[in-house]
From TrEMBL:
Stated name of the protein: LysR family transcriptional regulator
GO molecular function, one term: DNA binding
Domain HTH lysR-type: 5-62
Family matches, as PANTHER family: HTH-TYPE TRANSCRIPTIONAL ACTIVATOR TTDR-RELATED, HTH-TYPE TRANSCRIPTIONAL REGULATOR
A Pfam family annotated for this UniProt entry: LysR_substrate
Organism domain of life: Bacteria
Keyword Translocase: no
Annotated organism of origin: Paracoccus aestuarii
Gene3D superfamilies the record matches: Periplasmic binding protein-like II, Winged helix-like DNA-binding domain superfamily/Winged helix DNA-binding domain
Keywords: DNA-binding, Transcription, Transcription regulation
């Protein structure tokens, strides 16, 4: 067997294994079916194994063929991704960005016009996804991600620190106040709305404040803050969620702190992440600098708004689960 397998034969093999038909692979590759069959025969002879068995009108992989396919399909996917990345990087005016969905919709997108006004020759692609970018196989320049900041081997910097505290509609707050003057008793009587992907969860917050809640007969759980926040605005219960994401509702008065007896908890929450090599691209550095500037301004405004409500603010302590 040759020391170095024929890459052309491997490409033909991968296409047939993926499509299941020589004719489909030939059409995809833009060659004749005879050329594909010849390359498959040559590869089997080189390797000394059978890679396919025929069933009806389809070609099915043998065990050896399956092993080879798992390797080749991953390799060609990485090569295609690298090619896309190389071609894209030749255009210094194009930025591909992935972001946590709620952050993309509620914080990032409303501010993007400012960046585009300052950089009118820049094109941006935003992919709002809960899945973190695999920078080795995906053609992405940057990821803006909600999380704890633990991404080994990657450049990461906090662009927005968040504030967490119980939030509800003014009517719901007044309804609880009519029951009792004690904020802890108010909380025990409240219906909780859970944002299940938030770093700071209700069980941690309740434990910190020594509040025992009755069992929830019908819990409300949402995997997007963009769904939980409107429900709290409608008076369905109390939400423990991000001031960053609920900023507009707090500013407009459709959400308010449930009680100023409970301080807002501050912690690093939203990050810009990329491989260190991506920092060599001017467009990436430019966008991170823009994020940093807007993040600093936003934090000043958010802190001022909370203090205007009469809320105190404390930094999350080392050891609080999920945060530090």
């Amino acid at each position: 067997m040759p020391l170095n397998p024929n890459l052309n034969s491997l490409a033909y093999f991968e296409a047939v294994a993926r499509t299941g038909r020589v004719t489909d692979a030939a059409a995809e590759l833009g060659v004749s079916t005879a050329a594909v069959s010849q390359q498959l025969k040559r590869l089997e002879e080189q390797w000394g194994v059978k890679l396919f068995r025929r069933q009806d009108r389809h070609l099915l992989l043998t065990l050896d063929g399956e092993r080879l396919f798992q390797t080749t399909t991953a390799a060609f996917r990485m090569i295609r991704g690298a090619r896309t990345a190389v071609l894209r990087k030749s255009d210094s005016r194009q930025l591909s960005l992935r972001s946590s969905p709620s952050f993309a919709v509620r914080w990032l997108t409303p501010r993007l016009k400012d960046f585009l006004d300052q950089n009118s020759d820049v094109g941006i692609r935003v992919d709002a996804s809960p899945d973190f970018t695999d920078f080795e196989t995906e053609a992405m320049d940057l990821d803006t991600r909600y999380g704890s900041g633990n991404w080994p081997g990657l450049h990461s910097e906090c662009i927005v620190s968040d504030y967490i505290l119980p939030l509800c509609s003014p009517d719901y707050r007044d309804q609880l106040r009519r029951l009792t003057d004690d904020p802890r008793e108010q909380m025990a009587a409240a219906r909780l709305i859970h944002s299940v992907k938030a770093l700071y969860q209700w069980d941690l917050w309740l434990a910190v404040h020594g509040i025992d809640m009755p069992d929830e007969p019908a819990p409300l759980r949402f995997d997007r803050s963009s769904m939980a926040i409107p429900l709290a605005c409608d008076g369905a219960g109390i939400l423990l969620d991000s001031v960053t994401l609920a900023y507009d509702e707090l500013r407009q008065g459709t959400l308010v702190p449930m009680s100023t007896a409970f301080p807002a908890v501050e912690f690093p929450a939203y990050w810009a992440i990329c491989p260190p090599r991506h920092m060599n691209r001017r467009i990436v550095r430019l966008f991170i600098e823009w994020l940093r500037t807007h993040g600093d301004t936003f934090q000043v405004n958010a802190r001022g708004m909370l203090q205007g409500f009469g809320c105190s603010i404390r930094m999350a302590e080392a050891g609080e689960p999920g945060l530090l």
